[in-house]
Design brief:
139 residues, five-stranded parallel beta sheet, 5 strands, 20% strand, UspA, Universal stress protein UspA, Universal_stress_UspA, Rossmann-like_a/b/a_fold
Length: 139
């Protein structure tokens, strides 16, 4: 039985679909939405911005605010409550690290950024390969 679901969500439409799928497929489960910020990029933009902040965790939470607010809106549409979490670092590593505390992970097949479209599914593929629990990849 699936009691605890981790949904990795970014600011893409597929991230939203991942949350909707998790809610519909596991209506009685406790759902936690995880957003990972500040991972290294080609220009180090996100990582540098977070690293230079006075309060790193606060800066990460500010960057995650829009995504997590959208997650709460989706949950409200279904009449449920969700937990939210923010991690700093590489998305795949952060998701896999958190996964062991859950029964399953739900992730979108790829994110919405240009880099994600060029390297379609890199995070989803890594999570799928390394997760200690079952993973559902949503398109």
């Amino acid at each position: 039985m699936i009691d605890r679901v981790l949904v990795a969500m970014d600011d893409s439409e597929l991230g939203e679909h991942a949350l909707e799928y998790a809610i519909e497929a596991h209506p009685d489960a406790e759902i936690t939405v995880l957003h990972v910020v500040g991972g290294p990029s080609a220009m180090l933009g996100g990582a540098a911005e977070i690293a230079l902040a006075d309060d790193i965790q606060e800066a990460a939470e500010e960057r995650a605010e829009d995504v997590l607010n959208r997650a709460r809106e989706i949950a409200d549409e279904y009449g449920i409550e969700i937990d939210t979490a923010v991690e700093i670092g590489r998305p795949a590593r952060a998701i896999v690290r958190r996964a062991e505390a859950f029964d399953t992970v739900v992730v979108g097949s790829h994110g919405g950024s240009l880099a994600d479209r060029l390297f379609v599914g890199d995070v989803a593929k890594t999570v799928f390969q390394r997760s200690p629990v079952p993973v559902t990849v949503v398109r």
